[in-house]
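Hi U.,

Before I forget, here's the chain from the pilot set. I'm dumping it here mostly so it's searchable later in email.
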Amino acid sequence: MPDFDEREVGDLRIRIDRTLCVGFGDCVTGAPAAFRVADDGVVLFMAPGGVERERLLAACDACPVDALTVWDASGRQIVPS
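Structure:
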């Protein structure tokens, strides 16, 4: 599996850094429709496009090890903040 997984969600680009993720699951708690913790303990995308933008951003920002990065349409990094 690659070290990174990225998705375009509306005007956002979200990246999971599999090398940093340790499976705390705070993102899953914040947006369970968007993420899940896989059997190997690393977070995977589920259906992030079905989650309200602010809730998705808050879930990504909740990661205590900054394994989730989010950029806006202009390429500006907005998570981690």
